[in-house]
Amino acid sequence: EEPKLKYERLANGVTEILQKDAASCMTVHDKFLALGTHFGKVYLLDIQGNITQKFEISSVKINQISLDEGGEHVGVCSEDGKVQVFGLYTREGFHENFDCPIKVVALHPQFSRSNNKQFVTGGNKLLLYERNWLNRWKMMSLHEGEGIITNIKWRANLIAWANNVGVKIYDISTKQRITNVVRDNMSLRPDMYPCSLCWKDNCTLIIGWGTSVKICVVKERDPSEMRDLPSRYVEIVSAFDMEFYICGLGPLADQLVTLYYVKEDEEEFRARPRLDIIQPLPETCEEISSDALTVRQFQENECRDYRLEHSEGESLFYIISPKDIVVAKERDQDDHIDWLLDKKKYEEALMAAEISFKNIKRHDKIGMAYINHLVERGDYDAAARKCQKVLGKNMDLWENEVYRFKTIGQLKAISQYLPRGDLRLRPAIYEMILHEFLKSDYEGFAMLIREWPGELYNNLTIVQAVCDHLKKDPTNRTLLTTLAELYTYDQRYDKALEIYLKLRHKDVYQLIHKHNLFSSIEDKIVLLMDFDKEKAVDMLLDNEDKISVCVPGYQIGHLPCLYLHKLFKRDHHKGQNYHERQISLYAEYDRANLLPFLRDSTHCPLEKVYVCICRMGNCRRALQMIMEELGDVDKAIEFAKEQDDAELWEDLISYSIDKPPFITGLLNNIGTHVDPILLIYRIKEGMEIPNLRDSLVKILQDYNLQILLREGCKKILVADSLSLLKKMHRTQKRGVRVDEENICESCHTPILPSDTAKNFSVVVFHCRHMFHKECLPSPGMVQFCNICSAKRRGPGSGILEMKK
């Protein structure tokens, strides 16, 4: 997981100090650091560790340094009992030598104010020093008798200190001690495992001692419960044990930073100290992060040699050991991005940089690093896709990347993502990519031509390159289509139209409409119709003002029926000159629409109309048109004779029975097809029929002629039948040659036995089919050839039987 803190050594002047001396304590202010050493010196350092001031306090170890909130006064105590309090910018000060080591000193946080000139010291007693109105220091003992005081922390009006027994809190405003938190593990030596104190805020004290952590909150007591009790009390809100020994504590928002001293085995092998971030819970804690710190000479350090100090202004934590000072700070967005880059999570790093672009300081090249990583990995398409986001409007970077992709042979990968809007690369770049596609990928080349605006490259150069390739492959459809598109962009529409027509390409219609090329297609209409009739016809009809209807007139023999059909649907009178021809076109190509056309058209010859209706199978309708619209009885009779349909004759008689001229025509012509009696019986009495006598005479003559014809035909039939019968009799009386080449039609073996001396029996039919007698189904019963009977052929009858 990603660490929560980052670390760096405090160097510069600190390095020089710790080479000759050892750190014993350090106090942190927002503006500077105060470092105490084992040789009794106090150094004031800037945040980078550079020495700004040096004080010779003692010849022995400095135990504690205290600063007020303003950073104007310093309190120092040492192992030889010296205590000094002095101003960094004033001459005021306090100097005192005690007869015992002073382990800790703490200034009032507002020491700079005249009414807060107070500080406390801790040795075998807790002493409060306060300067009175006479400018003299007054001392008061706050606590004694429980061993050496090892730690003091002063926050607002509360002083917390630790001795051998536990931790106490004193309220300086009420001059009352308000709590006593007993030490849990009394077996640990307090000088070897000192107590760590830390105020999280004005009311929350964090105590770490041995492996135990307690979080105490100072609360106001209810006035009704006070009696003789202090006005405040302490509630322990969280208490839990840790795995290792605590060397220091520091708050981090609602979490806790803890410095541990680690013993890995019973022989007290000293491991690297650990700095953990934990989330306190009422009875336990949750580990957020844990880091083992490699401090100099950690193998020689004890628990008491480590300290943790923190800066309240920033989330800075200083890990102090005798020979090293390490600064831990919260990782910022730059550090987060560094970690992502180390883990090769470039996508997340780039996203994080975009979100926090105002706060990052050193990651302006994440995108390029990501692209380089993708290229190295061989993910060229992803790398090219990221170029859009990373390179943005920097045309120089774009050109560099294009040439890099060319070098590695991946121009195709980056082609889809090149700038093509207001910001563009040099035309040579686009032409180079088009040439690359033209060498190996015609489809990709065609796609780029369609997607890229023509202004990106020199059109004439690309046209020439395509023409050169077409010389090698003149029928390549992809190249021809692309060339047409290039011609279109170059406004050479005639060449584009020629190619589209050659390819029978559907875009030809869009080209004609878009660029108004109707005048160029008058001699190409048949070709257009040939590969898309519907579009061609719609285009012709929609643009009659640009393409005259008479234009296809000379091509009428080739014009599909569809054009005239749609023209007729729009206007029944347009194209009337072609209506007669249109009948045959409908009959050949579109019979379903012929009848509606014949019904609606007023420009078709009637003779053509009734012939077509008849051919369509509606003979009665055709006869009706002849009789009603033409009124021509001769044509009606001729039509009925041609069809030779009794129902048509019945219709003709029914229509004519009340029309004397029609009856005359029927009487003159009906005799050879219909019995005239049927007509004569239906004539009403009293009807005057012109030329009735002549018509009746003709009927009788026709009847006599029919009788004579029948008698003549009968005589001829009888004579022919007798002649054929005699011929058949002579034929069947002839013998049939049977030799060894003939085979039995049943068993397919020679009809004659190989030994003719033996008896055999053969059956030969008049149809010349031969069988062994024993091969027939019923040798004595069969009268006809099985083969010819199956085929229903007459000549197979009769039997010739040959025996020996």
TrEMBL record:
Membrane topology recorded in Swiss-Prot or TrEMBL: Peripheral membrane protein
Pfam family, any one: zf-RING_Vps41
Residues annotated as domain RING-type: 744-789
Subcellular location per the Swiss-Prot or TrEMBL entry: Endosome membrane; Late endosome membrane; Early endosome membrane; Lysosome membrane
Family membership: Belongs to the VPS41 family.
Function in brief: Plays a role in vesicle-mediated protein trafficking to lysosomal compartments including the endocytic membrane transport pathways.
Protein name (record): Vacuolar protein sorting-associated protein 41 homolog
